[in-house]
Each structure stands twice: as C-alpha cells, then as structure tokens.
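Supplementary notes for students who missed Thursday's class. We covered one full example, reproduced here. Read the sequence, then the structure, then the short commentary at the end.
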Amino acid sequence: MKGTATTLTRVLGFCALVTLAGTVVLGLWTTPPDVVQGELVRLIYIHPAIATMGEVAFGVTALASLLYLWRRTRDRRWDLLAGVSAEVGVVFASLTLVTGSIWGRPTWGVWWTWDARLTTTALLLALFLGYLALRRVPGEAGSRATRSAIGGLVAAVDVPIVHYSVNWWRTLHQGSTLLRRKPLIHGVQLEAMLLGFVAFALIYAWLVVHRYRVEDLATRLEDRGFETALAERRAEADELLEVVS
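Structure (token representation):
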C-alpha cells in the first residue's frame, strides 16, 4: 500500500510538472498578446485555474466533512481529507488574491477594491483560516473532528457565493470566460487555458495525496504515543495497588 501511494505521488507530480511547463510555454511564448490587455492577458492561463481549484478544494472539504458527520460513512480518513484539502485550498485562495491583484492593478488602476468577487474570496480565505485554527484546538479526537466538520460546512457556504458573485451583482470582475455559449477565447489561447486547468488540478491532487500521507503518519504516531502513555499510567496504577495490598 505504501509503495502504491508513493508511485501515485510520483506520477501525479510528474504529470503536474509536465502540464505546468506546457502551460508556461504556451502562455508566455506561443499565444499572442491581447488587443486590449496586451501582455497582461497571459495571466488568464493561470488565474482562473488557480481560483477554480481553490473552490474545488473547499468543496472537497465540505463533502468530506459531510461524510464524516453521517453515521454510515463516519471514518477518521474523511476528517483527515477535509483538513488536508482545506490547507491546499488556503494556498490556492491566497494565490488567487495575489494573481488577481497583479492583474487588477493595471486593469482597474488599484491593487484592491471592494468588488463582490474579491470581497467574497477574501472572506472565504478568512473562513477557512479560521477552520484550520479550529482543527488545532485541543480536545478528544472524535469531538474535535465533529466540531471541525461542522465548521467546514459552515465555511463552505461562501463557496457558491464566490462562484456566482459575478452573476448576482454588478462587479468590476469580468464574468466567466469559458462557461458561456460563445467562449471569449479560442484556438491556441483556449488550449493554453484548458491545459492550465489540467495542470493545477494535478497540482492540487499531488499536494492532497502528499499532505494526506504526512498527516496520516502524524496521527498514527500521536495515537501510538497516547497508547504508550496510557499503558504507562495503567502500570503505575497496578504497582500502586500492589503496594497498598
């Protein structure tokens, strides 16, 4: 099982590296500059993909949290997956805000504006940072996992709000580039953008698999340490009973 996990991690890592390199080549050298945005348009090959994978990561956290709370599927592995996916999602959400600000500065004239998409994304990042902090609060393993699952579901309510914010409100942020009857880009630009989605999906998968293995090992060591400490306390109690007897 360990060998299979290692192989999977290596395959995902290799595929992620290859597709990311392809995205860089297509995005920086093969595709032409935009008539309006010029060279700045090259951010479109990574920014939407990063933002989407952040939403996917938090969606996985919500799904894993729900599966943990449901009695029939309650398992420690769902709790671990929820936490790991949230950690990766926080990375993607942070990169979303950074790349968005880089794009927004020459486009809107400011690094930040209280636009609906930007504001809800910043709120989403803050909510899941709070979720990760909640997971670190000491407590019995089952109770800690349960309260974390509830927190994950509450935080994930903001995910669809972020996604549909450009449709629900009038915003500076442009609408969807691909999810429309006539996509705004085509040809090699479309190919580069789609490859970017594949690349960051593979990066997400690689990070989750790798981080899950580390977290699972840490949990096993923690459980083993607790069992050792419990055995030592029991031995001390037995010795005390013998002395008293």
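Commentary. The mean pLDDT is 84. The CA atoms of residues 84 and 211 lie 6 Å apart. If anything here is unclear, bring it to office hours.
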